[in-house]
Amino acid sequence: MDTIPNVGGKVSESIYNWLQSKKNKKSIEDIFRAGVKIESNKNISFKNKGFGIRLKGKTFVLTGSLKTITRDEAKEKIRLLGGDISDSISNKIDYLVSGENSGSKLEKARKLNIKIIGEQEFLEIIK
């Protein structure tokens, strides 16, 4: 069975329960009858000119204040490009996006030799 990043047991149970409702099942059937098709972004990958990375399978942590993009927008872009978000630093993190006034996450990332990128480099990656 596939898992969905950042979806735990409580959210999974809530989705399952929502899908069990006759009213919600009818709504879904109505949507499909209206011609709506669902496409998966599972195979979306990103290759930035010169940077050459794919976000699929990459995990990012955001720290500090970003000037030109909100934290929620940054997270959305990462997820749309197939990447994952974490709130904490560990050896499983690929990139720390460091904004102004970065704190303990920055120091911990340095100790673990995690690639640290600034806001401008991050914006280039998600273009």
Draw up the topology in text.
Layout: H1 9-20, H2 22-33, E1 59-63, H3 71-80, E2 84-86, E3 95-98, H4 104-111, E4 115-118, H5 119-126
Parallel strand pairs: 1-2, 1-3, 3-4
Could you characterize what this model shows?
- This protein folds into two domains: about 10-40, no CATH class; about 60-125, Rossmann fold.
- It starts with 8 loop residues before the first helix and ends with a helix.
- The protein has about 130 residues and is an alpha/beta fold.
- Helices cover about 40% and strands about 15% of the residues.
- The protein has five helices and four strands, in the order ααβαββαβα.
- The longest helix has 12 residues, at about 10-20.
- The protein has a four-stranded parallel β-sheet with strand order 2-1-3-4, with helices on both faces.
Features:
127 residues; alpha/beta; Rossmann fold; 2 domains
* Order of SSEs: HHEHEEHEH
Shape: elongated
Task: Describe the sheet with the most strands.
Answer: 4 strands, parallel
- Rg, nearest Å: 18 Å
CATH topology of the largest domain: Rossmann fold
Q: Which CATH first-tier class of the largest domain would you pick?
A: Alpha Beta
Structural class: alpha/beta
Total individual domains: 2
- Roughly how many Å apart are the termini? 32 Å
DSSP summary, beta strand count? 4
- Strand order, sheet with most strands: 2-1-3-4
Quickly count the helices.
Answer: 5
Which regions have little confidence, pLDDT < 50, spanning 5+ residues? 43-53
Beta content comes to 5-15%
CATH homologous superfamily descriptor of the largest domain: BRCT domain
